Every structure is written in C-alpha cells, then in structure tokens.
Amino acid sequence: MTQLHGIYIDHKMTTPFAMAQLSAKIKSLATDLARSGIILLATCVRVEAYGDAAAVTDIESTIFSGLSYKRIEGPIEIARRLAEIASSAHSQILGESYVSHQLAKSIELVDLKCPISQVARFALDIGRAARERQGFIASFNYDQIVRDIIASRFTDGERPDRLYVIGAGMLGRGLIRSGVGERFRATIVVTRNPKALRKRLRRYTDIEVALLRPEEIGQEREPRSIVVIATTEVDDKYEAILQNGLLRLEPRTIVDFSSVPALSSAAIKSLSYLNMYSEEFLQFIEHNNRQLAPKLPLLFSDIEATLRAVQIHIAATTTEPGQYTQREG
Fold it and tell me: pTM to 2 decimals?
C-alpha cells in the first residue's frame, strides 16, 4: 500500500523574504530527494515536499525542523494543492506563469513510475487548464515593469544608453526576447558562461545582444544605462564583483528581480536600486492582485470540478484507499 503525504510552508505562513532565504538554502537538494521519490518544490515563496509517507517523514526533521508547516495526506488532497499552485492561486503574484514551469521541472526529476509523479502530473495539467479557462493571468509582467521603470526614468525624449541584463536563465532570456531593450542603443547580457548562452540564443536569429563577463562591468560611467538583475545564482564572491562593477558604471537605476536581493543596499547606497521588496515593486504586485482576487472562487471551483471528474484516475495511481473530501469553506 502506498501512502502519499506532503509537507509545505509558503509566504502566507511567514514573510516572503524569510521564505526566499529558506528556499535558496535547500533548492539544491531537489535532485537527491527525487532519487528517493520525493518532489521538492522550492521557489522564492514556498518550500514543499511530496512523496511516500515514510520518505517525507524522513526529511521532516531536517528541512522543516523548527518551522511552522502544514501536512496533507492522500493523492486527492495533494492533487488539489498542486493544481492550485500550478494555477498560480497561491503565488505572491496572482496569475503569474513561472510557478507552473517550476513545478513541471520539479516533477520531471522524479521517476515517472513513482505514484507521486503521476499524481503531480495530473495536478499540473488540471491547474494549468483552469488558469487558462478562467483567464487567471497576471497583469504583473516582468518585461512590462521594466518598460514602466524605463519610461519613468527617461522623460522628455531623453535617449537611454545601454540595457544590462545580468543573468541568462529563464527570466533573463524572457526579458531579452520581449524587446525591452528596443529603446536602448544596445543590450548587454552579463553572464559567467558566455559560450553556453551563445548556444541558447542561436535559435533566436532576430535577437541582437552583446555578451559581457561580470568582471568587465563598469569600464566607463554610463549614467543613462539601466541594469536588470535576473538571476538568483549570486554568492558572496559574485555579489562583490557585481557591486564593484556597478559602482563604477553608475547606471540610472538597478532593477533586481532576485527573490533574495542580490546586492547589499548599504554597499551601493549611492545608486538607485530597486528590489522585489521596494515600495515601487509592491505597488505593482498589489495592483495585479487586486484585479485577480475576485476570480479566485471561480478558479478553485474549476479545479474542484475537474478533480471530481478524474478522482478515480488519480486514486488509481496508488493502492491507498480513501474518500474524496470537499474543500473547506
């Protein structure tokens, strides 16, 4: 008999910053835990683990030690939770799309034959479909935020100089493809691995960017440039390199999308620096969530209706007996 359990903590149970710090510490464990049949979902606002009850209990006293977390049991309850996550109903930014991609990547690490993998794949499809049907789509858009910030920093026809995008991951490449650099005379991607990025960009023949290593930032002052930090992979050494380079560069504004701020505000206090906890960012989030919050009941009902229809298929992924239960409230 397979018993599936889950343990989770998210930004609603603590502060977003504390959640981001915890996630940054343990997300590297995902691959090892997957070998034990555990799905670890560690994003900037959540740490959640799902799998066989015994395996989940084994990590309860390590990863979740000293934390106030919640536990759920059974394939249907887990499917509901993961479907709601995939729909972005529990995101700090309601309606955002990144969380479903993050969940998909976490699921892919676990053997498809594991019952938790099958339950999670059902849930991912259910959540994504409900999000589309209900139009639960964020107006909070990273590239639009960058455009708005650029517009506010360059008025009266002033022409920007160069746009620096630090990081070549999913967010960085998305910003580049969105065309946010069209007002600038050039877009510079700062990466520690230019060779790998060149390979990734080959398919995008319409994208023109220059590549720069972190230590090459700030060869001259550029007070009409904008810097966007789109990476979470910043250790102490990298942070020091970025800070020194940016202090030399003296850009108009630094926009940091890292869940754990990549730079020390005190170290670069002479520069204009916005991170995800700055008031300007929080206003973007609040505006978005105010628009989407009224759609939450319909989104939950959509997910619930689908779960009713497929509960037999989900339950069949394990030999665990159990009853389907209604959502409280």
Answer: 0.79
